[in-house]
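Researcher: If convenient, please comment on what follows.
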Amino acid sequence: MEASTRFIIIDDDVFNNTICTVTITKTVNDAAIKTFLDPREGFNYIASEYSEPNEESNAILFLDINMPLMNGWQFLEKFADLDERVKERVKIYILSSSVDKRDIQKAKENKYVKHYLVKPLTKETIRLVIYSQTRVLKK
């Protein structure tokens, strides 16, 4: 099994979503990227798209914390209630401008968060994320 080349970006900042999209596109050949400004729409997409029993693809999710309507922590609370199939297929990375140690600690304590990343997303960060997913898949 190969590392995912499907990415989901949930952030209410259009500029950050553009930076992420461009950076991923320049780093990963044939990457499929979905962006959502409204975290509720992103959640609904994940809940429906990744619960399909015949679908085998995985995704890497870059999730912002500070958003209106539903913040990243609320998103993670709802994510915990999803079917196990979805939780296994979507790997969550917090991508935030916050360097608050409380946010970083809260992310570390959440079993669905793989890592806490500080904006902006870089090519090196994407490579490390993909490498870590490849290592997990080979185990």
Summary: Residues 123-138 form the longest helix (16 residues). The two ends are 11 Å apart (CA to CA).
